[in-house]
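hey all, quick one before standup. I had two proteins in the batch that finished overnight and I want to keep them in one place so we stop losing track of which output belongs to which input. First protein below, input sequence then structure tokens straight from the run.
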Amino acid sequence: MVVVPLILGTDENSYTQARAYHEAYGRQAVVCGAGILAPFYHTKIAQVHARAGFSSDVDVFAGLLNEVWASRNSDIDNFLMIAPTEEYLHMLYRALDLLDFSPVMPYPDAELGVALMDKSYFYARMKKLNIAVPQTLIAGPDNFSSQVLAGEQFIKADDYETFNSFDFPEKHKGFYAQNADEARDYLSAVFASGFTGNMLVQTFISGDNTQEFSVNGYRSADGRTVFVQARSVLTDTRPMWVGNHLLLTDTDRPDLQDLCQRAVGGLGYIGFFNIDFKADVNSDVPYMLEMNTRLGRSSYYGLLNGVNFVEHAINDAEGKEFPEVVRRPFSWITALRSQVANQLSGVALEYFMDTVRYANTGNALDYGFDDDPVRIQRLTKLRESIGRNLGW
């Protein structure tokens, strides 16, 4: 049986999965998107198909997938679908009945997958599994004045996809409020924008970003699960990127693995996932913040650690055992090594500069095999611009 990844979109997350496949098999993945973004510009590791409207029109989406299937169904048995965002996964669920083939879906069924995109549903399920989550109030346009907490709190949209389509000056991906008054002011601005969905108002878990952890993983239908953990060292503080990781390093907390196993097992979850935690700086209790029904944007740290999630999913689809794993220390970065090092000092800098870890530092886009000069030039400019935008 031959299963080839069909990757949706052309962003960095999509490239990460194409690279994972190429590293494991030395072959090109198939990629479909609305256009060709920098990661796949002049790429050697994927067959890229682009069509306007692919990310927004389900008929265009399904049409292109069917065309690609017709061109490949004589030499492969199936496509393994890979979605880099919840938006693409949602589109894929909607398109399944329009496809001329039945792809391998390394994701939960549509009912659970769509439900988990609603954060309030996720928190309710975790509470039933006795997994610690932040105290959460649900604020709507008619009751937000009363749905705030007394002390420090963090506010984010229940449905981020819809929230992100509204623009207003105070907009934040996630908003930290020191008190009830700041929370009310922000919520007032949110609902004045015309947004009518729900906002989640949560107890702020004490500590800075170094108390945050990311876990990526894959779970098979028969319950075999592989995890990779990472700890945050640097994060983005810009309003619409707040909380996005800039530097992640290896870590090993057995309690996080146990909590993830309880979560995916209790949900009956199958496929790729990404779970975020924050450990209270005073009690060290880890709180589960959210679960993404996909691999995270930073999932390349799995490859750095020695786990190829795409290879695991393909082996699973082809009825083979999971590949063996040899763990390695790592640092996952978004900017240049020198830019990152300049932001560190003391113990954090020593950890980053450790000889073995520093040698295993990188980002998925920096793939030596994919060495077209035009691509490298474009990515270099992209990295430099990221540093400038961050003020580095």
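OK second protein, same deal, sequence then tokens:
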Amino acid sequence: MHLQPTLSNDLVQLVPLSENDFEELYHIASDELVWEQHPESDRYKKEIFYKLFIKIIDFHSGFKIIDIKTNNVIGKTSFYDLNETDKSVAIGYTFIDRKYWGTPYNRSVKNLMINYAFKFVDTIIFHIGESNFRSRKAVEKLGAILLDKVLISETQKTHVIYKLDKNNWIS
């Protein structure tokens, strides 16, 4: 599975992330409310966001999300933790501009990624901060099932793990 294909539908295009995208994405990420429920709620700070951004660049699996209608960058997302033995991949490190919350855009992004991933894997994993109820609700709407809670040692924050199986996916 290639972790950075260009994907698109009638609402969004996912384009491989590059170092040149930092300022454009930081403009969105600098909104404190984007991170309000996230375990690292200070990601709106430039130096904190930069650490995340470089981590995603180093993964070679991140995307900027472009609104097809306006050609504006509206957020970012990633594939990560590809496990070819278990035939699984994770989707996450996603954020979207607040003006797109409650619209079909997030679901459209996830549909693109899930439909692509299920050509290669049988399971998709989502790691979400335990108190990030917006994200939890969004993956539950996709049909993902809550598996477990884990303490992520890097942040010392509790995350929950959701799993979406290919057999249960209805796009």
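Flagging for whoever picks this up: The domain at 7-168 is CATH 3.40.630.30 (Aminopeptidase). The two ends are 20 Å apart (CA to CA).
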